[in-house]
Design goal:
- This protein has 557 residues and is α/β, with parallel strands linked by helices.
- The protein has 3 domains: 135 residues, Alpha-Beta Complex (Protein-Tyrosine Phosphatase, Chain A), CATH 3.90.190; 237 residues, FAD/NAD(P)-binding domain, CATH 3.50.50; 151 residues, FAD/NAD(P)-binding domain (3-Layer(bba) Sandwich), CATH 3.50.50.60.
- Helix content is 28%, strand content 23%.
- The strands form 8 sheets. Strands 6, 7, 10, 11, 12, 13 and 24 form a 7-stranded mixed beta sheet that branches. The chain has a 5-stranded mixed beta sheet with strand order 1-2-5-3-4, sandwiched between helices. Strands 15-22-16-17-18 form a 5-stranded parallel beta sheet.
- α2 links the parallel β3 and β4.
- This is TIGR01244 family phosphatase.
- InterPro entries: BLH_phosphatase-like, FAD/NAD-bd_sf, FAD/NAD-binding_dom, Prot-tyrosine_phosphatase-like, Sulphide_quinone_reductase.
């Protein structure tokens, strides 16, 4: 716990977890305020869990979530009321502590305290509130003033897509002035979490420090983005600071909306409820799989689009294979509930997948969307859509359930001028340029291109974007690079065999290897070795380093 004391009665801190509660108690805090909405990050502990553990320690807890860049006067008033009513001293936390410090600063301004005093007190605690000085002075809406610093290229997001884009840009033009904006300390290799949930990978193999991955010569701005101002070519950060750009690359990933399933927050990570879509829960999946001797295992998939469309059923196949190998499969009923109308979106891969569905005697339930769960009662409810469009509720029981949450673009993207009507960054699907702002580009999960949202897609998009951005700036004379929608989904159908699905726009098959080596329509040991042993180093040492192995962009004819 890294708590910073602002006053004798209030401290602010970055995200806290279950292991921090004893330290919070021993430090003498009598109340906690959570200012961070649940599901902002894959490794974030939900407030319900913090509240439960705090209660056991005799600490009051209050949930006052605010959106970065969207702090309203009502939010400030609620914070002021809460800090006045809760037992003192109070610990307020969010992702980095900045939102909590901002709320305190604005609340102090409402009380009439001088702005220089507020800024000085926040600065002493390690938070720069100078960017909010205009709002504090007016006690009104969000106000940002001049741009603090300007870069040739600003990349928003330090995930797979963002780091790959920055590296590809620097590989082509080493002297390019590039900044990456991301508040996270840790970067995750998320494709590995499926194998963590199957006992193949160790959890720690999928995480590295962000600092170790920022490309040489790139400035890392460790902050959260709250808004885009394309008219003045600026990005607004938490606290109100603005960073300017000549060209902008948007790659913040997507948001896992855990709160979109009623009751999930209260039970996720216990009562047999798990998900490989969260770093801290993938080991729990393996724990449940090993411990289930008989009963019912349920696996779910939400409406598209989602990150790695095959991941929900990968969890099912690998779990079922373990039960088959250990002789327990006849005693375990397996059900796969998916909101989609079919098993997989590319028809060539459906027949081999169905062979495994039959092998594991799994029951398929199409057009079923998980809406509610009660972990203690071991019950789940789905909204079923019939062929005529009518909806009904289906209730089922489980001993173990693997849940995949609904997914969407991050809030600061969905509400921005860059978004299309569905909330994604609006790009031309071939060039990765924004359709309305000529100096903006996007790639990865948050962009509107209708490709599979996978790390493999970002690996192919990054060189295309880098080429076209530098071409637009006059540094490259060749024709446009073209992205064909390539995405890859290594479907782990059993331990030791993978169906390597590779496809582009319109479901066109785009195999990377000759069929004699890897036939993507047939499960193979070679594809498993690719996934287990080759793809991680290709990710860490190739994609994130600007080494475009098997990813050189195709140029327009």
């Amino acid at each position: 716990m890294d708590a910073k004391l602002i006053t004798n009665d209030l401290a602010v801190a970055p995200q806290i977890g279950p292991d921090d509660i004893p330290a919070v108690a021993s430090a003498g805090f009598r109340s906690i305020i959570c200012n961070r909405p649940d599901a902002e990050a894959a490794d974030q502990t939900a407030f319900r869990e913090i509240e439960r553990l705090a209660g056991q320690a005799g600490i009051a807890a209050r949930y006052l979530p605010v959106t970065s860049g969207g702090i309203t006067d009502a939010d400030v008033a609620a914070f002021e009321t809460a800090t006045g009513a809760l037992p003192k001293p109070t610990l307020a936390y969010c992702r980095t502590g900045t939102r909590s410090a901002t709320l305190w600063s604005l609340a102090e301004a409402r009380r009439g305290r001088a702005v220089p005093e507020i800024v000085a007190a926040a600065k002493a605690a390690g938070y720069d509130m100078s960017g909010s000085a205009a709002r504090m002075a007016t006690r009104g809406g969000v106000a940002t003033e001049g741009v603090e610093r300007r870069f040739t290229v600003v990349v928003v997001g330090g995930g797979a897509a963002g780091i790959a884009a920055a590296s590809s840009l620097k590989a082509r033009k080493p002297d390019l002035q590039v900044a990456v904006i991301d508040p996270a300390d840790v970067h995750y290799y998320q494709p590995g979490w499926t194998l963590v949930g199957a006992g193949v990978f160790d959890q720690d193999e999928t995480a590295r420090t962000m600092a170790s991955l920022i490309p040489d010569g790139v400035t890392w701005i460790k902050a959260g983005v709250v808004a885009f101002e394309p008219e003045r070519k600026a990005v607004v950060l938490e606290g109100g600071r603005a960073i300017g750009y000549d060209r902008l690359v948007v790659a913040p990933g997507l948001k896992l909306n855990w709160a979109g399933i009623d009751g999930l927050d209260e039970t996720l990570g216990r009562n047999g409820v798990t998900s490989n879509y969260r770093f801290d829960l993938a080991p729990y999946t393996w724990e449940l799989v090993q411990g289930l001797g008989r009963g019912r295992a349920v696996f779910t998939q939400p409406p598209m689009p989602i990150k790695c469309a095959g991941a929900p059923q990968k969890a099912m196949y690998l779990s079922a294979d373990h039960w088959r190998r250990s002789g327990r499969l006849p005693d375990i009923g397996i059900d796969f509930f998916t909101a989609t109308p079919g098993l997989f979106g590319v028809k060539e891969y459906v027949p081999p997948l169905m062979e495994y569905v039959r092998r594991y005697d799994a029951k398929l339930h199409f057009n079923h969307n998980l809406t509610r769960i009660d972990g203690q009662a071991k019950r789940a409810w789905f909204s079923r859509t019939a062929e005529d469009g009518t909806k009904s509720t289906v209730e089922t029981e489980f001993d173990m359930i693997h849940v995949v949450p609904p997914q969407q673009a991050p809030d600061f993207v969905r509400t921005s001028p860059l978004a299309d009507s569905s909330g994604w960054v609006e790009v031309d699907q071939a060039s990765m340029r924004h359709k309305r702002f000529a100096d903006v580009y996007a790639l990865g999960d948050a962009c509107s291109a209708p490709n599979a949202k996978t790390a493999a897609a970002a690996r192919k998009q990054a060189p295309v974007l880098a080429h076209n951005l530098l071409r637009d700036m006059g540094f490259i004379k060749e024709p446009d690079a073209v992205y064909d929608g390539y995405g890859s989904c290594p479907l782990t159908v059993e331990r030791g065999k993978i169906l390597l699905a590779e496809f582009g726009y319109g479901g066109k098959l785009l195999p990377s290897f000759p069929s004699w080596l890897i036939d993507g329509t047939k499960p193979s040991r070679a594809a498993w070795l690719l996934k287990e042993r080759m793809l991680p180093p290709i990710y860490w040492q190739g994609m994130l380093k600007g080494r475009e192995w098997m990813a050189r962009p195709k140029l327009a004819v």
